[in-house]
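Run log, item B.
One chain of 150 residues. Sequence copied directly from the ordering sheet:
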Amino acid sequence: MPSNLSQTRDTRQTIHLPTEREPSSIPRGDINGNWEYPSPQQMYNAMLRKGYDDTPEDAVESMVAVHNFLNEGAWAEIIDWERRFSRGLGYGWEACRRGEEGFQENADRIANLRDIAAPKLLRFQGRPNEMTPKARIVEFMGRMYPAKFG
């Protein structure tokens, strides 16, 4: 998250929100160290800036906790994917062809074939106005077969 997010209390705010940021386990790609998650105050200010002014202030701390939890889970999925496929699709296929059990059996053998640097995250970038490939396909299917996908 950008380090220049405002920690200043908004004039419309009625309760105090913490300004402490929580460290992430996600390594930064631009400098040494890990990312920091936004404080509840920064999250609230960002939501106001984006036009979400109906957010209950007392819910922001929980929102930040969920945000951080989901980011950590997504990063764990990325690490797992990289562990399986960073050596190429052939290695990934070999490791995964017999399911999870097969991956666990072959992971140590395949992991020793070549050292791969751990992934790092250069930036967080939301694209809320862009449809994912899956969303495009479902939209197309909804037009073609509205009874089933509409």
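Observations after the first pass:
- The chain has six helices and two strands.
- The longest strand covers residues 23-27.
Flagged for discussion on Thursday.
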